[in-house]
């Protein structure tokens, strides 16, 4: 009785032999023969498809085709494959495309060093910003090696110093500019130093900007004592001095620490509108349509 109940509860299975299953084919293509199995439990049924087993001749013919294929030139092989693809249906094209996609993908960052072209891989990754460079380090060990040996964090910091005045000023004030722009990698610290330096610089910049926004800074004033115009049109400063161009036609040099006036340069007959200086000279432009060059030390 138990065996009888099991047989009664099993779904009925019926094989539909030689049933034609139509694919999305062209009109000149013949339907493929599959075996359809219909499984029913009395209330519902499901039809599943099973491919017909390959015949023995197919394996022999396939091996023979591969043998001939291997003997042909590359151009002949390509032409033969193109001819085969042109005779396939849309479904087969999609299947081949899925098969080829992973084969056509290339990790060129890993492949370039294998060809002795490390410098090209480094040059490509050197265009990344900090966030992308962090992500690139996590791709694989080879990418991390290219970034490390290429000193790409150092190059990123150097690029920021060259293009951003704030970075340049911080590099000089915090004295980490001494580690930049070295001709030989052996002249400076390893990549890990610059990898840890970058977030510290970002934090420093965020702190400075926050202090300015919130008023957390010490404000010092310099009274220029310009009796006539009482106006400052331009200035430049360094760690030791401040040089200002005034509306009263004069240029004044101030001590940055004591805020005392060290020199007054006179000679322009119009307001001093712009100035620039280095260790040796001061160059000023005035509304009197003249440009004057002054000696920084003597004031002449």
The second-level CATH architecture of the domain at 108-214 is: Up-down Bundle
Count, helices: 11
Q: How do the helices and strands follow one another from N- to C-terminus?
A: HEEEHHHHHHHHHHEEEEEEE
Radius of gyration: 40 Å
- Beta-strand content: 15-25%
Give the CA-CA distance, first to last residue. 123 Å
Strand order of the largest sheet: 4-5-6-7
- The gross shape turns out to be elongated
Would you report the number of β strands?
10
Round the mean pLDDT to the nearest integer and report it.
80
- The CATH C-level name of the domain at 108-214 is Mainly Alpha
Pfam family, one: F-box-like
Organism: Micrurus carvalhoi
WD repeats: 225-255, 265-300
InterPro entries: Beta-TrCP_D (IPR021977), F-box-like_dom_sf (IPR036047), F-box_dom (IPR001810), WD-F-box_domain-protein (IPR050995), WD40/YVTN_repeat-like_dom_sf (IPR015943), WD40_repeat_CS (IPR019775), WD40_repeat_dom_sf (IPR036322), WD40_rpt (IPR001680)
């Amino acid at each position: 009785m138990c065996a009888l109940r099991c047989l009664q509860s099993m779904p009925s299975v019926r094989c539909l032999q030689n049933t034609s299953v139509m694919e999305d084919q062209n009109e000149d293509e013949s339907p493929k023969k599959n075996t359809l199995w219909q499984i029913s439990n009395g209330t519902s049924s499901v039809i599943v498809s099973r491919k017909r087993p390959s015949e023995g001749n197919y394996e022999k013919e396939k091996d023979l085709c591969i043998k001939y294929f291997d003997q042909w030139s590359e151009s002949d092989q390509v032409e033969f494959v193109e001819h085969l693809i042109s005779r396939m249906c849309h479904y087969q094209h999609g299947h081949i495309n899925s098969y080829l996609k992973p084969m056509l993908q290339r990790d060129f960052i890993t492949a370039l060093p294998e060809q002795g072209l490390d410098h090209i891989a480094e040059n490509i990754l050197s265009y990344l910003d900090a966030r992308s460079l962090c992500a690139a380090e996590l791709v694989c060990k080879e990418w991390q090696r290219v970034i490390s040996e290429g000193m790409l964090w150092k190059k990123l910091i150097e690029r920021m110093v060259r293009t951003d005045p704030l970075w340049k000023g911080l590099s000089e004030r915090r004295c980490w500019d001494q580690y930049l722009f070295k001709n030989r990698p052996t002249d400076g610290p390893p990549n890990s130093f610059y990898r840890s330096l970058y977030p510290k610089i970002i934090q420093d910049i965020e702190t400075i900007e926050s202090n300015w926004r919130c008023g957390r800074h010490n404000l010092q004033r310099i009274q220029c004592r310009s009796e006539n115009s009482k106006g400052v049109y331009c200035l430049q400063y360094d760690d030791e001095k401040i040089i200002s161009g005034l509306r009263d036609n004069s240029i004044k040099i101030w001590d940055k620490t004591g805020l005392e006036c060290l020199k007054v340069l006179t000679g322009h007959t119009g307001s001093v509108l712009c100035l620039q200086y280095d260790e040796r000279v001061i160059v000023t432009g005035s509304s009197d349509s003249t440009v004057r060059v002054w000696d920084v030390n003597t004031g002449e």
